[in-house]
Amino acid sequence: MQIWVDADACPNVIKDILFRAAERTKTALTLVANQPVKIPPSRYIKTVRVANGFDVADKEIIEQLGPGDLVVTADIPLAAEVVEKGAHALNPRGEFYTEENIRQRLAMRNFMDELRSSGVNTGGPPTFSHTERQAFANHLDRLLTKHKPA
Question: What is the pTM of this model?
Fold first, then answer.
């Protein structure tokens, strides 16, 4: 298993959790972004810088992704493609996207996008909480433990 991160919008606190997990479990971690991303020195952690543009990082992740890999993203259309390819998708707030819930999440995302397009102020996401950070760390740990090489 390899971990891919849609790094442009990933909170630094989540990146730090991922850095520690990659080192601890010796799991390859690749952060994909269209701007430079600071990473600690590690043989397990690397970055891929892509050109600016709509969904360029998403396309790079989908192109490189293997079945069973993990993608960390808050981008629901990307998560839908990840799940479709047989990989795992985890939101930085600690929610797994699955075949069972991705269609509903995608429909809600599209609905909210339509509201915003028509001028309705839908507000932004809630403040990133300690509970969400803990949920992310717990889900990540369970997944990495389950897919630990023998």
Answer: 0.85
